[in-house]
Amino acid sequence: MKAKLILDDGTVFCGKSFGYDAAVRGEVVFNTAMTGYVESLTDPSYAGQLMTLTYPLVGNYGVPPYSNSENGLANYMESDRIYASAIIVSDYSEKYCHWNAVESLSEWLKREKVPGITGIDTRALTKVLREHGVMMGKIVVEGVSEEVVDENYGDINFVERVSCTEIIRYNEGADKKVVLVDCGVKNNIIRSLITRGVEVIRVPWDYDFNTLDFDALFLANGPGDPDKCITTVNNIKKFLQNPDVKPCMGICMGNQLLSKAAGATIYKLKYGHRSHNQPVQMVGTQRCFITSQNHGYAVNTDTLDNNWEPYFINMNDGSNEGIRHKHNPWFSAQFHPEACGGPVDTTFLFDEFVKILNKS
């Protein structure tokens, strides 16, 4: 059926529905990755967003089966369901071919009740978003009610919506225990930790993990505005002030929350970093890495406490891509070392974290 994407500035893009036929409203963002739509759709960091893929051909390799490994994590996806509110593409491939595919992207979207629109000039849409910045938008389908739940997007705490609600343990019995604060964690972060031989204690975003017995702290990724996570930041502050120093690593929103606990401020990027090709430089070296990213906020490095310093910077716009403490074993990355999908240039950060943990 015919469908439209209507931006808040009045711009209208016409196309056809290939997902679930329903109206939906959210923040319109763009991702320049060439592959990885399964991983991106199931990344909780996309909660509340209408995800535009700039690569023109989407759906040609279908969707893998939803199956869990013995540790309870999905084998081929980054969470238990689709979290993006909708997907916007230029050319949807109705036919798919892949050794591991069991259904089409369209079938998956319909089963999970997620709208999709194709036939959109995604390059023109991306130019609008780059010039104006990310904005709210609405997808409407011909013959279907245009009513959507009227929520003030800026007031929603998306982290609260996607975080686990109880403690979950993985690889129990390992020598070292890592508390992982779930702000919307991707499965491959957990996989990357348990394959390195540690026990992961996954706790809700607002849980006071300082009451637990653990050897290191891990701050996960998540959606929305980090300023909504005041409780999490206060818990991190207590951790940093503890005289019993333990290692800490953060990824994506984890970088922002650690930075806030260190006294820094956060600002919203004009259109964010969402791609598999973001170059970052390790500060103080000539080392540059190609990274996978998905975030709309950044740390103001100039507001960091004197005991902290930038760890990585973005080579495109100079924004912060990670911080580290000058003396204690605390560091973070704004990008995704676990990628999935994307390049694996920076997986060594997990090795560094576990090496520090085993020495502690």
Distance between the termini: 59 Å
Counting DSSP E segments of at least 2 residues, the number of strands comes to 20
Strand order of the largest sheet: 1-2-8-6-4-3-9
Mean pLDDT: 96
**Oligomeric state of the chains in view:** single chain
Helix content: 10-25%
Structural class: alpha/beta
Question: How would you sum up this structure, described in words?
Answer:
The chain has 360 residues and is of the alpha/beta class. The chain has 2 domains: 2-155, Carbamoyl-phosphate synthase small subunit, N-terminal domain (Glucose Oxidase, domain 1); 158-358, Class I glutamine amidotransferase (GATase) domain (Rossmann fold, 3-Layer(aba) Sandwich). 19% of the residues lie in helices and 30% in strands. Strands 1-2-8-6-4-3-9 form a 7-stranded mixed beta barrel. The protein has a 6-stranded mixed β-sheet with strand order 10-12-11-13-14-20, with helices on both faces. Helix 6 crosses helix 7. The N and C termini lie far apart (59 Å). The mean pLDDT is 96.
